[in-house]
Structures are given as C-alpha cells and as structure tokens.
Amino acid sequence: MTLEATIRVAAGALTVDASFEAPQRATVAILGPNGAGKTTLMKAIAGLIPVISGRVALDGEVLEDTARGVSVPTERRPIGVVFQQYLLFPHLTVLDNVAYGPRSRGASEEKARSVARAWLERLGVSALAGARPAKLSGGEAQRVALARALASEPRLLLLDEPLAALDVTTRSLVRRELRATLADFSGVRVLVTHDPVDALTLADRVVVLEKGVVVQQGTVSEVAQRPRSDFVADLMGLNLLRGQARDGVLDLGGDAQIAIPEHASGEMFAAIRPSAISLYRTRPEGSPRNVFSGIVAAVECGGERCRVRLRGALPLVVEVTPAAVADLGLGEGASVWASFKAMEVATYPI
Length: 350
What we know:
- By secondary structure, this protein is an alpha+beta fold.
- Helices cover 26% and strands 37% of the residues.
- Helix 2 (94-104) runs parallel beside helix 4 and helix 3 (109-122) packs across helix 4 (138-151).
- The chain is elongated.
C-alpha cells in the first residue's frame, strides 16, 4: 500500500506545489518551518480543502484527480486524522468521541462502542471513557484523538503536529507511546511537524517543505547527512555552505573560499559540523588549512555545550564547552579566529 500525492493548492498568498510518496508501514514526516504549507498539504490529502490541480491515490485507489474530475468526499476516504488541537467533540464523552468513526461508517452503536473501548484500552485511557474532553490533560486528549482516528480502521493516518500542544515532559512520554502505536499500524502514516526531534524519532522518511515547495526528501539519515537548505542544515546542527569547487578548493564567492578534501569540480554543497571547528583569540598555528577571523554574534548555552554564532566573511556556528566560553571570553562582539581541517568538510553536488 502506497500513498502517491501530487498537489497544487492555494493557502492565502502561499501556493503549495508538492509531490511525494509514502510506502506502507512507513512513517513519512512533512517537515518545515511555520508557514511552509504543511497543514495545507495534509488537509488537501484528506479532502478538507479544494485543490487547484493534482492527484492523490492510496494503494491504487484514486481519491483526487482533477484531470479526470474525481474528488472522493472526505467522509468516504479511508483516512484517519489527528489534528493539532485534537478537535474532540466537547458534548460527547470520550467513549462516544472514539465511537464516532465506526458509527459514521455504518457500524451499530453497540459495535462502535465495543471498538472504541478496545482502542481506549490499547492506548491506556479506558478509565476516561465516561469523561468529557474538557476534563482531559493534554496527553490524555492526544491519546483519545489518536484512538478516534484509528477506530475507523483507516488505511492512511494523518497526524498534524500531534505533540505541539503538550508540555516538554509530557511530549517526551507521549512521543515514545506514539512511536509504539505507529509501529503497530499496518497502513501509511504521514506526520506533519516543524520539530526535528519528532521527525528524527518518529519518521522513516522526511519530506522537507519550504514556502510551499519540496526542497528535499529521502530517508532520515540521507536528509541529516546531506542537507540541501539552510533550514535543514540548521535543524540538523550543521553549517551549510555553497560554492564552486575546483582543485581542492570551494569558492564561496567574494573573497571567501575553503579547502575541501576532494578534487571535485562544479557547484557543490559543503557541510561542517559545529563541533569540528575550533576557536582562538589569536590566529592559530598548525595544520588546519581553513582559518578565518570573525566576530561573536551570539552565544547560546544549554547543558554541557554552547553554540557560538559568528559573523564575518564566513558566518559559522561553532560548538564549544561552557569552560571554553569562559576561558576565551566569548562574549558578544569578541574578535575570534575559527579553524577547521579540510577533512572535516563533507561535500556533495547541488
């Protein structure tokens, strides 16, 4: 079973024009910054908003095909949706919220409630069957919304920022539970998120959407190792440069260039891990072939590592210890030298 989606849809001033595939038993994350069109794309797949043009097919069954005039109504699509704000029916109990899906597909009240009880039990919230949504915590509401989506036995599960409404502690717990639930789901899973942690821990494949356009897609490791935009590189904690390679040098434009380990030629990306860069207050001596001066623009510390952002001919993000920040006096505005070895530069074609 595979989801094939090619969609062009308007969202205010933004036009989303995206194409991707999601195989059976795989979780595909639609990842991108706020305003990239991720939720719009999800709604178009679900048939919740009209599309300008496109085709959506699930296991060969056409759900949308503007060229042929096909548009299956949302309620007839074999799709379960978990919305960012969950959208549980406030006037129904938890049990009846979950039973709504089977009932809407023709099941008797007794059968629908039996299915609902089974899903509530499976997701560990059976004790809440008689409660109203207003009484639920964020984590409980998320589990109930997931149970409601799964109770209708969908072949495609769409999750729109399913963890965004949770606090940090609850999010970590629910993320583990969600991963286990998704692993048991036999259909196709599409997860919309702007959180790289969700994408890296829940997804098998990533589709990166920026300004309504797919800029990169592939397995999680492919995207992490070879980012193709500043957004992806920043998410993965990498410095991303772009230039013209020749004779072991990458010309970045202007007067900036770096030594690279390969004698490749043509337009190339170069990715450098922040931890591979060293900082000094005076120009360093030694083997690194790449040495640049810069000014500290910002220092962000968390736990045992600090990220130092530099401005200058080569803007970089450098990762150092808090002790190094103190020893080098890396306050905003400090003049520094940055160096890294050519072997620390990963290059790949644009």
